[in-house]
Amino acid sequence: MHRDDSRNDGGQKKAGLERRSLLKGLGLGAAGAAAAAATLRAAPAEAMDPGPEEMRSRYRDNDHVKRFYALNRL
Questions:
Q1: How many helices (H) and strands (E) does the chain have?
Q2: Termini Cα distance of the chain
Q3: Going by C-beta distance under 8 Å and a sequence separation of 6 or more, which residues neighbour residue 59?
Q4: Domain spans, the chain
Q5: Is residue 1 within a helix (H) or strand (E), and if so which, with residue range?
Q6: For every one of its 74 residues, what pLDDT tens digit does the chain have, with 9 covering 90 and above?
Q7: 65 CB contacts (<8 Å, ≥6 apart)?
């Protein structure tokens, strides 16, 4: 009995072509994403100048703070 292996080869060739087109598509997609990322640039960071209100100390030594430290010493 002689089998017709040409059908199997055709199926393998078709699967190989599908795999190649998938890999080619992934490669093109990755290249497109890299090109898009290269065109998008982050804005330079700007330093904030704190005014006198932000620079003043907010710590106040009151009864609540003293009690907190006393309880944490235990």
A1: 3, 0
A2: 93
A3: 65
A4: 1-38
A5: none
A6: 455 544 555 566 667 668 778 777 877 788 877 777 766 666 677 888 878 877 777 778 899 999 999 999 87
A7: 59
